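User: For documentation purposes, I need each entry recorded in a consistent format: the amino acid sequence on its own, followed directly by the corresponding structure tokens. There are two entries in this batch. Please keep commentary to a minimum and don't merge the entries.

Assistant: Recorded as requested. Entry 1:
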Amino acid sequence: MIENEWLIQDIDRNLLSELKQQTNLPETVLKVLLSRGFKDVKSVQEFVYPKKEFLYNPFLFEDMYRTVVRIHNAIETQEKILIYADRDVDGVTSLSILYDTISVLGGNVVWYIPSDEGYGLSSTVLDKYKSDGVTLVITVDCGISAVQEVDYANSIGLQVIITDHHEPPQDGLPKAYSVIDAKISSSKYPFKELAGCGVSFKVSQALMQTYGKYFDKKVAVIADDGEKCYIITLVNGIVVSEEEKNLKEIDFTEYTKVFSSDHQTIRPSDLQQEARRLLAEYYKSEFYDDGRMLEFFENNVDLVALGSIADIVPLENENRILVQSGLDMMKQNSKKRLGLSYIFEECLKKQLMCAKSISWYVAPMINAAGRMNKANVAAELLLADNEYKANASFTELKKLNDERKEIQNENVKQFDILLQEQCDIEKDNIFVVLAKDLPHGVTGIVASKIMKLYSKPVILFIEDKGTGEATGSCRSIDGFDIVSALDKTKELLVKFGGHTQAAGVTIKLENMKEFKDKIKQIANETISKEMTTKKFIVDCELKISETNKDTYLDMDILEPFGAANVPPTFLLKDVEFEDVCIIGPNKDHLKIKVCKDGTYINALFWSAAKYKDEFNYKDKFDIVFNMDLNKGNFQLIILDARKNS
């Protein structure tokens, strides 16, 4: 077997004992949290019990006020608004949130998702909607790289609002009316990793607030001792000033609302501290007491969870709150959204409603529509407001998903052959592969599989017939920013855009050889052997007596699992393997019985059939693994194994 690197985290036993007394959490849960950098009760409790009132104010986006006032005015004057979305799950959930919000507020709104035009804004599409009377275009989950297209929109009298979460171009932003993207260099928004649907949710939330009675009004949060006070002034929930004053000096007519303490006696030295405590209380009361905004949250957070999981954004900070809340909503009422309820019934069956099941079963089906150039089917499913529409969209989506699976299987086979022919598997630090006569749509999935298999960045191109161009999908490893690398070759590219580890790119075929040479040079200068070594970060070692269903269920408090909060990885030493057999339609996985001290546990070892002969009975192995339930039965998912010498 290949010798991979195991990084076993140190656990501070004294801190473990201290936290165990203060939190009453299971010891293994605390070990996992300590291994991931949590050092005190406050950080542990904030992670384990994320609170909705800790979500950031959408007006912290510097262009948010300008954005929502413009949309508000367009709604009031019945301007025709176009929402222009990306075609993946993140894009269609972003579209659904903003479209529903503007519709509820009475706006004249239409939507569009590109198909044959490819990713992003299209001048041809802008022309069409301009002639149909559109005056305002709002992008969701796209647009941040559309410099030329926005220039064109401006030239034909269309105003463009960009809402996106992708990396901005390094040589300047599009000249849009406003830009909402936490990743732009001037952004002071506290969290940079919202998905496109998270950004759309924030825009919709702020837009809803423009219809509230406190919008653009001053609110005072005051702590006083009868003579002096500390006053914090808010506008749209943003602190605009704070100061200590004499109570008699305050003109309360300036404020639409005053939020103050019930305490009668506070020492003057505590006024500022008390005002800040009151501010936290005010934010909490505003979230839970405003029925209109609470209803908005509950009506849309399921879509934020769905899009965020599908787009593999880090499930930390705001994303953790939003995804956990959204999953709770789906668990409480899986039939709330008609279109989704059909998918849940089809895909989940006996699966639990969790981030993993959404990622593995639900998201791929919704993504199938975009991959087959019919993302409108997925959007219509999410927006369906009656059984007939929901059933019709689901039936078509199911057919598209079956077609997607067939295409994916064929593309995996063909790209595997081409990879061996066009790349040096051992020496190349990045794989660049060009295919002909293959359908588009699943290239990103295939690139991701190859990247994970070899722990190297991958760019897979498919030639576009009759255009002299090829369209590609990129997937990268930690430490190699694929968008930055593409930017260094931009003179050879038609267009590109995406994240540090996933991107799309279009190139003229005549530039392919030069591009390959240049991107390989960049990879050779950037990627070290250590970066391509597969690493397993082990949270803690378990005894065989601790490796059971009860421990697995204890881990549920750390859900949702995903990027930046992966399922706990454990180490088990000196086990034996029995009943090792090859399984799977392609005969590439192993089913194993793990044995130690008279205890037997079923396990799966994905893509390990080639190592079967190395797992001899009575040899001792150390394994790193995740725990899992399969139809209620406890099992291990082995990630790596080492034979003891």
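Entry 2:
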Amino acid sequence: MSRIDHVLRMVVRQGGTRLELEAGEQPRLFHGKERLRFFLPPMGGPLLRDMVRPILDPETGDAFDAGEPVQLTYTGHESGTFDIEAQGAEPVRLVLVRQQAAVPTEIPAPVEAATPAPSAAQPAVQAPPAAGASAGAPAPVPLAPSAPVAPPPTLSQAPEVAQPGLERLLSHALSAGASDLHLSDGEPPLMRQHGRLRPLPAAAPVEAVAALLGPLLDGPRQARIAAGSSVDLALNLPGAGRVRGSVFRHRAGLAAAFRVIARAAPRLDALELGVDLAPLVEASHGLVLVCGPTGAGKSTTLAALVRAALEAKGGVLLTLEDPVEYEFDAPPGALVRQRAVGREVADFPTGLRDALRADPDLLLVGEMRDPDTISLALTAAETGHLVFSTLHAGTSASAVERIVDAYPAGRQAQARGQLADALRAVVAQRLVPRRDGDGRVAAVEVLRNTHAVSGLIREGRTAQIAHALQTGAEAGMRPIARALADRVHAGQITREAARRQVEDTASLDQYLRH
């Protein structure tokens, strides 16, 4: 991929419509007239010339080399079409204007019929001048009309404060011992209490979720929802902590799900996991994964591990989360830098690339959700950083398989080798209803990357990881069946509840007999 394609993809990822590059000056990125943050250093004239020269035809290239201003339209790799103005004379200057339809400011109702494409007879529209442009800048290039495109994510500046109506509902749910609150247009609020959905007592149906969210649902977030995406957010709940939310559209309208979390990262010993995870933070570098199904407490365990590492090692902790959940206090000799995807950084891959230049000792990656993030996290783990992350996988073995499967077939052997070297441990956990009905208790599986396990990963024999777990007690390993059996023996959960958590009930029965 060419250098200009990389720059254009950054413009799209960060929600820009116009990028101004001038030799020696800080790049300026705009969405309409609003200037956005842009994580790109100033570039010199030779670099700007080298960036644009390969996409010019011979005639335009000769004019550009002679110092004349030139104009062209360029369709980038995975970035769409841009109108480009290039000035070859000093100071070298490039203006990149993205062709796109206007972004809606309100969330439209779903439509059944397709929107007709613009007619060829429609006149070309002209991009408005960007704020901050110099007075002597060339006039904007006329933009040809284009079909509506999904607006890209943009860095949000929405306030992290719950509106009064939403705050009352969240406080009500919290006082009832709920972990989650579910809202939908025209429906009564529901809360998740000890793992089960129940109506929120004495709460009237929600007329409009958008009205409850207020300024939290700003223009860029509305645009993402209108384009069919969900929006993640975090906000402060006075006297209770932080709330993680997800807002999305479904057939009946707008819906939102909120989870109340503590403000500060917990201590490992306060989680009552039934296993000591403190040794996992002793590694100098590598990858520590926490996996499990949705709602299994992965984020809480991850935050506790990172807190333990920060207190034990000090140094610089840099987190990339979507959104930021737990807050970390920096002990003496430590620094904490927390970045929210969509607010302080455009996406996980961009944030990870930035992180490798920010001198971190510890990295927290909220979720390894795509091949780019996985690849960069493994690279960071190999190059001297201790990386903590979560993954949606039910067991340690399936977590390994999911990472490898994220790569194209031709690169999976390389991925297995990289993972075999970088992985330090996988923690897979479930939350199981207590026997007395008073909440849930964690059952935790621990896989340590011993020499034997590393060989299994490298050779693609992940089916044999289950046997390594069963025989690896001396290395600090613990299969999920053993964790469940221990909870049964302690009288905390029932045998039936334990059996519902595993497919291989024979292993569970074996541990239950001892």
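Summary note for entry 2:
The radius of gyration is 26 Å.
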